[in-house]
What does this fold into?
Amino acid sequence: MNFIYRIILKIHTTYQQFIQNIYLKICIDKRLKVGRKVRFVEVPQFGTEPFLIEIGDETTFSNNVRFVNHDGGQNALHFFEKYRDVRTFGRIKIGKQCLIGADTILMPGVEMQDNCILGAGSILTTSMKKGSVFAGIPAKFICTVEEYGDKLLANNVMYPRELELDRSKLDAYIKQNLPHTYKPVK
It folds into this structure.
């Protein structure tokens, strides 16, 4: 039964990747700008105006990232004569070597300058300065990328690099050697 499950899962994953690649090609045909060596864990939802989006080189996207290029809330105002012609759109620009975390939303008119990190679950409503880390709803400045890197180094999990070639061995090593320590209650 496990073998059948693995086959079904592989077919499903292959199909999802195929559909995502087609969607990405369609968005590029609609003038989405994608730099070199951009990595997609999962292809983002680029909204109805992918031509308003620019992505820099070597940027990484986690899963379930969404771009919002216009304010759909304006549709509720069209019933009022004063607001009948209100239309709002905004470009979204992602710099080089950025990381966009899982389950994030980028709103109209924002820019992530180079070397930025947007934390998982965030909604970006303002632009980010080069080398900054933002997170939250709405996303706010947390620290610099260097400060974030120092925090990671302080909690670094060391393992023999050669284990990266065999994921099952790496998983077993981490499971056995990772201490049972948790963040304190605040």
Observations:
- The chain is about 25% helix and 20% strand.
